[in-house]
Amino acid sequence: MSEVQRMDKNTQAGANSSHMPALTGVRFFAILHIYCFHLWAIFSLDKPAQFKTLLADMGSLPRVVQTFLANGWMSTSFFFLLSGFILAYIYWGPDGELTLPKKKFWLLRLTRIYPIHLILLLITIPLTAGYAMSQGVTIPGLITSGLATAALVQSWYPGWVPVWSWPTWTISALVFLYALMPFLMPKLAGLNHRNKIILLCALPFISLIQTCIYAVYFPPGAKPEQFWQIFIGSTPIFWVAHFVAGMLLTRVCALSKFSQDKFTGVKRFISFGDLALVAVVAIGCMPGIEEPFKFFLRHGLMMPLYMLVIVDLARGNGLAAHLFSFRWMSFLGETGFSIFIWQNMVMIICWIAVTINPAFGAHQFIWAMIGMVLLGILSAYGIEKPIAKKLRRKLNKS
Question: Are the CB atoms for 370 and 64 separated by under 8 Å?
């Protein structure tokens, strides 16, 4: 067995032994919350008459449910925080370095994302090119945004984000964080425990810097510009603080696959993480959260609550940890990337369906939910994972 093969085997074994089912389960619901927000954004648009029935059944949902779906933007920050935590938990070694070579780490990450992303993009381009041009996007704009989206760097320029596959800006930002992570590890590991705690407490405030600047230019009541909304919400550098906070949690709270005492201590039926999760849901059910306050919540104010949730879910402590640890939740949690990548296609299908027959909109939301989950399962377990496995095998042979 080659050195690379042994390293891959050890990495996979370590990942399996450090599996945290509650965090895998909650990731599914966080991503689904974001997807529902995107559906709500379409439903609440001012649309031409022929599209008035689009996702019409969302209008019949209880008001509190509508509000919670409309506030799905708040789960984006949880996703980035959780991503930093899980990757640090698995790959941040006791010596402060990555547990495998940088190239190996990056290739393992990219083989999971890029193949299914490129498959979707090839399907999406012929379906959306005409619409994009009708909205004023030029042919050079289509080409540059298409190349940027294919390379998953579209989140660096707001004008590229909405052209081909808006939801995948999240994956674009995550690719940047993957690239950055091996260089962050030794720097963060070099801090003493006290300074790690200080930095962890400071990160929510650091994450709010760009939002404070945005609020000066677009105070409450001002009409925001889409370009600057996307810039504040999607630029990868603005999500580094959340990702780093997730990484630091593993060290400050001694939560690592290398920590011998990570699951010791009294297990409570109701934990602080449960209370934090209740607070998160309560905030999500608050109507009338407008800009710029929504960006303050999204980019920093929610971070301490999310930290409490993640720590107790990782420890298996509390009621939520038990609920999210069911085997079927872990199964669904593995579909997260597929849901991010395919949701734009599901939304395109919704638009096409009501042009064929407006009556399709009467039950469109429920079918968009069911269809997305089924498509995510099919994509993750039938396409995404098998392709990634084959690519890893080729990598090991090289």
Answer: no
Whole-number Å distance between alpha carbons of 311 and 320: 12
3-state secondary structure of 388: helix
Neighbours of 308 (CB within 10 A): 19
Q: Model's pTM, two decimal places?
A: 0.91
Query: In this structure, what token pair is assigned to residue 68?
Result: 């919670």
Q: What number is the average pLDDT over the span 185-194?
A: 95
Name the CA radius of gyration of the chain, rounded.
Answer: 21
Burial of residue 213 (number of CB atoms within 10 Å: 0-12, 13-18, 19+): exposed
**309-357 pLDDT tens trace:** 999 999 989 999 999 998 888 889 889 889 988 998 999 999 999 999 9
Question: What are the pLDDT digits (tens) for 20-32?
Answer: 889 999 999 999 9
Residue 11 has pLDDT above 50, yes or no: no
What letter would DSSP give residue 287? S
Place of tokens 């930002």: 173
Share of the chain above pLDDT 90, in %: 69
> What six digits make up the tokens of 25?
């389960």
CA distance 74 to 283: 9
* Closest by Cα among 34, 39, 55 to 353: 55
Please report, as a single letter, which amino acid is at residue 34.
Answer: I
118 exposure class (CB count in 10 Å sphere: 0-12, 13-18, 19+)? middle
> 90 near 15, Cβ under 8 Å?
yes
For residue 125, is pLDDT > 60?
A: yes
Q: Which two tokens stand for residue 369?
A: 């939910």
Report d(CA 235, CA 158) in Å as an integer: 8
Q: What b-and-e string marks burial along 261-284, b requiring 16 or more CB atoms within 10 Å of the CB?
A: ebeeeeeeeebebbbbbeebeebb
**Cα(181)–Cα(9) distance, rounded to whole angstroms?**
22
